[in-house]
Amino acid sequence: MSLAADARDAVRERPFLLTALRAGVVNYAAAAAALDLGDDEAVAAALRRFAEDLPELETESREATVTMRSGIGLVGEDIDATDDEPLLSVAGVDLAAGGPLTAIIAEGEVDTAALGTVLSRLDAESIVVDAAGVAGDAMLVVVPRRQGAAALRVVESAVSHVYI
After folding, report:
1. pLDDT digits over 79-130, tens only?
2. Whose CB among 14, 44, 54, 104 lies 3.0–4.6 Å from 28's, allowing a Cys bridge?
3. Confidence (pTM)
């Protein structure tokens, strides 16, 4: 493989760097040194060429109603089996009413891009995410109860500036 291909692969393994390249905010020399692929000047040149081929990072606003629902938990761990529909189910693990967590629910124009933006923003705010998912026109993020109000504000802001 060529050095340019190695550099592209290394960037794709580091989504934060790919986003920074698309945003045009990379110090190429520092990025090349951090990737440690060999000749830093050649790697920096490869990164510059790669960045030129990438689509510019843009945001778009999504129409979504964001609500908060407290008292969510893991069925079988936080709460006993319930007849209520689970809010989220992953590989046989259900989250439903009756526990110590809070669900932030966004309904409307949501998709995996919106979820990715939301998760990145929650991480930047040091808000713990216990579970998350998106299906159809609904997105759910589960956080500890005490972080619910802060998570609600972050999700509302994030869906109005989704990275595409």
Report:
1. 777 767 888 888 888 898 889 999 999 999 999 999 999 999 999 999 999 9
2. 44
3. 0.86
| Cβ(75)–Cβ(81) below 8 Å | yes
CB-CB contact of 77 with 121 (8 Å) = no
- Provide the pLDDT for residue 77: 78
Query: What structural domains does the chain harbor?
Result: 3-53 (no CATH), 60-163 (3.30.70.260)
Residue with the two structure tokens 């972050």: 154
Q: Which long-range contacts (CB under 8 A, 24 or more apart) does 113-116 make?
A: 113/162, 113/163, 113/164, 114/62, 114/64, 114/139, 114/158, 114/159, 114/162, 115/139, 115/141, 116/163
Query: What does the DSSP assignment read for 143-162?
Result: EEGGGHHHHHHHHHHHHTSE
Distance of CA 46 to the CA centre of its chain: 27
C-alpha distances in angstroms, 158 versus 38, 61, 88? 38, 9, 21
